[in-house]
Amino acid sequence: MLAGSDYLLNTNKISQIWHALIKHFLKKLGTLKLSLQFRLFMFLVLQVLLLVLASLFILHLTGFNQAGYNNEIIVAHKLNYTAQNISSQYRQISAEAVQLSKDLSLSLENKLREQGMNVTEMVQQPELIEELLTEEYERTLLYMQNTQSTGAFIFLDGAGLYLKREKLSQTNLASLKTQFDVSEAWFFEAPLRQARQHDLALDQLYYWSKPLTLPGTTEKVMLCSVPLIDSEGNAFGVSGFEVSADYFTQEYALNRDIFPGIFCLFGLLKDNPLQSSAAMYSGQYSGLSKDGGDLAFHIVEENEKANPSNKKLTFNRYVEENGGDYLGFHTQVELYPPESPFINDNWALAVMVPEGDVRSVISDHSFRLILMFGFLALFGITLSYGLSKCYIKPIACGLDLIRAHNFNRQSPKTRITEIDDLLDYLSKQRESQSRQYKQEELPSEVLNIFLSNIKTLTPAERNVFNLYLQDYTAKEIAGILCLSINTIKTHTKRIYSKLNIFSRRELLLYMDMLREAGKEIN
Length: 522
Description:
Helix content: 40-55%
Mean pLDDT: 78
Number of strands: 13
CATH class of the largest domain: Alpha Beta
Number of helices: 15
Number of domains: 3
Shape: rod-shaped
CATH topology of the largest domain: Beta-Lactamase
CATH architecture of the largest domain: 2-Layer Sandwich
Radius of gyration: 48 Å
CATH superfamily of the largest domain: PAS domain
Distance between the termini: 94 Å
Order of helices and strands: HHHHHHEEEHEEEEHEEEEEEHHHHHHH
Largest sheet: 7 strands, antiparallel
């Protein structure tokens, strides 16, 4: 209890000290002698700084300056856009593969029927299989040319037809491979097994393989396989299309203007890791470790779905096996209909950015923001100085006229109503006093004393005196005599003291009366 009381007592003392210091500072500030221009300049600068702070506050409320949040929105948009494109294109390829399978199944069954055979007897006739594949070359080629794929194939027991093209606009010669054993290949075995075990429609039996390298090739490909089924329900082979890794890299390339190291991975997500060996990728990523082996990405921090409209969106964190840290998002890509036996294959697309790239973008954004507001503040201060100077200039000119007593109704106007009215008022007062002095006759003794006092002036004071008689101001006299304004002011005080006058106006009145009295100054 005592400790709490001591704390409150100390807090009250500190508060009182702060209040006293602030009060003392404001009191001292109020006693400072500051020019009107400086006061106006500081007022404008304060306005500029308040505007800058208000702009920063508004940007903070709207989230514009939250570079990290904007980065997450950018990556989320890229992910969703690419996922939609992949899903749409792969579904289209799947539909074309199903139609190719239907046409091939019907064509092959009819050709076998013409020879008095069925599909089960075809296995024992390798030469017949090769002949049938050759006859289906044109049909397969035509389907491939009308599909966004890089290859097409027909695989039967013991033989296969595989058409390959490097680019979508180019088609290589077909290659007929009679010794291509695919009986153990998953893309061949999986759809055939499901077709034999389940009575499903053909558009529910297509299968997308994970990226693989076919015998005799070096490039990874994904194969969409559809079983070939005759009218009796016998599955006797597969056909379909290929999507190569090079095509995937080009078709789904990500814009790297903001993040140079951004890339995407598309593959099977099992448990937690996303294996690069089981994925297609596009962007600044090789998919290999330093020793050439495959890598796996582990999701160490999964926050939420990549929804760009979520203002609290935060990156997921991925750690590569070789120690690399990445930020990004991943989402499931639907390749199969709900009734497909392969619906449990969890195909996912991940868009990732090296953590260093994200930090670099945030730093650049913050630096540009600081630079922009710094420039605005500097521009505002410079503009404040110019405006205050322009604003005070006519006021200063009016005050100079008043101090020099060198004004009348014909004096130039300052274009400031209050200053011009004051000058008119002082001019009227001066003219009234002049008439009053002229109406009053001074004794000649006073004028003689004034003349004798003039003789007491030193040569330096006499030079200043003579220039005053020529209607020069103190500032102009300082320039003529090449002296400082303070020196001229000192001479002026001594002149006034010796002549027993108090202003330049009174000096000029004495001179006018001496001329009217016919007295000359020696």
